Amino acid sequence: MTETAECPFCESEITPSAKKCRHCGEWVSRDCLTCGTPVKSQWAARGICADCEGKGTTGFSIQPSSGGSQVPGFYGLRKSRSVSVALALVLGGIGAHRFYLEKPGKAFLYLLFCWTGIPSIIGIFEAVKYIRMDEDEFHRKFSTGEL
Prior knowledge:
Blueprint: E1 5-6, E2 13-14, E3 29-31, E4 38-40, H1 41-46, H2 50-55, H3 81-91, H4 96-100, H5 104-112, H6 118-132, H7 135-142
Antiparallel strand pairs: 1-2, 3-4
């Protein structure tokens, strides 16, 4: 049985030696573009290590924010947890929350079986699941991490 690791962006299973996730296309491990230090996770997606960012030696036109955290933030479109909850409760039976969260495969399954009422019940459970998630966990799972 082969060993697997979890992609920090889409939570799919990948090989531990993977440089880029084959599911979401994000870098999970690569060398810093400035100094060559191996970096992993969200730092790999940025392409620079924390030391180079702190020194301002990124070599990129985007400079780090002064006094900001050394933890990489989310780039691109952030999905609203409250909108997801509202869509799951009100229009969960037709998969509106899944379309909003850019999961069209599951959303079409909701549409296919909407006449049974089962997707409406699942939508309520998913709304509760979104409410119970903390904000960071929700964004890690559903927001895009593209530069």
